[in-house]
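Before the break, one more example. Copy the sequence into your notebook; we will annotate it together after we see the structure.
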Amino acid sequence: MTKSSAFRLQRRTLAGLTIGLAALAIAACSGTNSTTSGANALPAHVPLGSELSTTSYSYQFVTVNDPASSTFTRVLGIDDLGEVVGYYGSGTPSDPSHGFSSSEPYTKFKTLNFPLAVNTVATSLSNTRIVAGYFEDNSTGHHTFGFMRNRGVWTYYKDFKTPKGPESVNELLGVNDSDIAVGFYKDSYGNDIPYELASGHYLALHPPGAVTAMATGINQPGDITGVETLASGLTEGWLLRNGTYSQFLYPGASSTQAFAINHSAVVVGSYVDSAGTHGFILTKPGNPSGQSWQSIDEPNAVGTTVVTSINDHDAISGWYVDSSGNTDGFVATIQ
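Here is what the structure looks like once it is written out:
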């Protein structure tokens, strides 16, 4: 794999998982309207129901673009105070990725770059101000490592089972208030292997039937959500709660990707249908008789909306593609 192709792989996970976060591919408010989990328990495959929501959240959208880039910003995480993290820059050699954080009204942005990194992506933050993410180093081979930033101190992470050699991949995609993170590494066959990281210990996760999978979000009770691809090629979301794995597809979708989960176990992500890529909110997942889905499209989006995070007040963050082909971040709060 070349360096440029590794950059392009970012477009698979938090890039929207059209999407491939395998290595790094790796904006000024302008919008309107717009603790360890029970991961080691025996899994059970519990397919989820397909009820669409009859009572939907009503949201007010605000575009959030880092002024350092006029064409590419993605908001990937939001905490309970409305602070967000994400990155700008598409991750190409001419447009490297830089992490950022910002608070309401999203007019000031703080750059978050791992020291000496080629690219940095901030994927999530906790209510205890821990930022998680991943970066590509500047050494020969350009490895990708997960990181956590705690009160200005950066620590990088690499699962010991990661194959040695150039362009190794580890990414942290979610973190909770107990500093427990989730992510994945890439094995020697090129498959993504999800894990939970707690106190420096890595616990492998095993969504049933997955050929390749990522753990993308974790809440304070320890529920974990993620994305998996089956042998059939189908991509679907999964949830690990109380030792039981559940898998789900948005009704009528060709693929579904889950990215985050809040304290109330509300899951967000994106799905693909014949009209494009849309965000979703899934309430009461794992409860076929009570769960419901809501589709989310940013009002200014043209064909693509991805919901990347939800806080405990049900505010959401994400990104969309506008009519000019630019990638814009957003925050949406309940009206």
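The longest strand covers residues 210-218. Residues 3-8 form the longest helix (6 residues). Try to locate both features in your own notes.
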